[in-house]
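Worked Example 4.2. Consider the chain below.
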Amino acid sequence: MRRTLYSLVLLTALPFILLRTLWRGLYEPGYREDIPGRFGVGRKQLFLPTLWLHAVSVGEVRAAAPLIATLRHHCPDHRILITQMTAAGRATAHQLYGDFADIAWLPWDLPWAQRAFLRRWRPTLGIVIETEIWPNLLHEARRLTVPVVLVNARLSARSAARYTRAGELTREVLADFSAIIAQTDADAARFASVGALSVAVAGNLKFDINPPAGQVDQGRHWHAALDKRRVLLLASTRDSEEALLLDALLPHLPTDVLIALVPRHPQRFDEVATLVTARGLSLCRRSSGALPAADTRVWLGDAMGEMFAWYALADLALIGGSWLPLGGQNLIEACAVGCPVLIGPHTFNFAQATEDAIAAGAAVRVDDVHSAAREAGRLLAEPATLKAMGEAGRAFAQAHRGATARTMALIEPLLPDAT
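Applying the procedure from the previous section yields the following structure tokens:
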């Protein structure tokens, strides 16, 4: 009854969801691709043994990389299917895995759409990355005897409170997972508090991502070509954060410091460029192919898939999503290449990794953008401190590796060639 009510609410909202998707397609054309796929409709697939991974957006798509590589080695005769819900995630999946994997939308969570999707692809195992919990998808998978596991699972206190309000529906849905494998003990405890019966802990897959050597070399090349100007990176910033950060930082930064600014969402590149020039700041766009001139104040990272290069370039990074109550973005990539980190007060999406990085000396937390501006000015004037933070970051990232092997050990009994 609860799931039926959920389905009716979703069906009622479907016209609005479809209109919103088409509207987003006006400035993110990827949302207009393969609309039938949102309903589980598509050409009939030839039957091939298929391992299916769902990674909702960019962060999850990237986090899946070490697990996908291990699965391909373990099951070389299986097709890899990777699904997403966002256009940016779809583009990233094509960029990283398009030469060997099938890329598709996960349908909207209507029973008949999920049933059509599962019958179309006939996966032998489904692996959901992080916190994508769709009642009808899981129910239909159970009906069709498709085991589904939730890996790299995280659950913030805020999300746990929301799932608690759903009561019995949450417990029923979590019971449809064949396994739940959490990032941390705290995540596992929160899953248990909302009704999960058995949760294992394997660590965070993001620590197992190897910084691409080509990107690291590119970042270092940029740094040398810029005559080793000091570079402050505003990394993966979210809506409204850029204005707050720029207005706070500019009075505290020497004019020779280059601000590298990489927004989280590509549809905002033009908006952020306008915001920068409206403040009278000289701007260079990465998409132009040119390096910043000596008097350029802001270098806008308006290209996808180069985050490791930006971290390798920067002397110090301020991590986006943490300056407004948005939960923060991934700081592990910065630590892995030895980039010191400043983080704001809002990090509930990366709580354990943030606290561990701070404890390791790789990151510093500040209370607000004004404190960040003062601290950034201080740190940029102390190369020895930045060097020590960068070395601590590398050691921190290296010490937390191994989640992929632990995850594989837990899901191996469910893999098709397991004995």
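The two ends are 38 Å apart (CA to CA). Residues 152 and 219 are 29 Å apart (CA to CA). Compare this with Example 4.1 before moving on.
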